[in-house]
Amino acid sequence: MAHSKLKNKADYKFNYAYYPGCAAKQIQKEADWSAQAIAEQLNIGLHDMPAATCCGAGNLQEHDLAAALAVNARIFSQAEEMGMDIVTICNTCLQTFTFANHRFQNEPELLATINKVLIKAGVRPYGGTIDVKHLIWVLVDDIGEDTLKQHLKNPLNGLKVAPFYGCHALRPKDIFEGRGGTVRGPQYLETLISTLGGSSIDYFGKDKCCGFHYMLVNEKEFLNMSGGHSLQAKQAGAEVMVSPCTLCDFALGAYQSRSEKAMGTTIGLPEMNIAQLVGAAFGLDKKTLGFNRLHIDPTPAMKAHNMAV
Fold it and tell me: Do 109 and 156 fall within a single domain?
């Protein structure tokens, strides 16, 4: 997953092995661009993992769990050799990695078995030492609110933002205990929105599934699910919706017009990746943040709050 020239660790205060995920390299490129742009602002080194493969995204796990675990262990071994934890901007990659890493760190016999597979394939064995983080966890827990505020050049000025977490960074609960951002735990998106000067909109669906996996199985149900979340948020007063997940971005943004047709109503709620909102508040230009790729332009809502976009 090559995305940029490998950077020197010594140039940055924080360093992570960067795993954007397949969606961010294809259908949601703006999330990747924005993540890298705000990382540069915050002195975060996002280091490429050029030999990394797809995480399997749940599909490989269902077909061949042993193969899926080996694939993930291989990726973890690369990060471990780099001396860095993994950071991702995809909830599905986060869930897949976290589940596998939880098993490796709690089942030594399993890790030993998987490492035999890696060694046979000529791959460095995984020692079970890395952590897997989402970018929003890094922003809140590692960078901190005070540092984020120091980079504010274009505060949200009360912009009403609906956070949408998606389910893959929250469940299964036992491996995400104390992390993620569910209404029952740390509220990372709300913290970021508040830090940027915005106002968080609370609504029922913010920690529910976006419906992405229903897309091909039951399109009508998917459109009602994804559109329903957006409509709830809009009715609650949201002017913009943000998500930390590239697949949720796709489901809620790209398919909103089709949801409107299926539901027989108008939603008209701009949806963007949280990294894009952070970048806008940092004063980065719209081209860098990929606003032109969004399906509804958030600029009018931002300008209504005297943001320079």
Answer: no
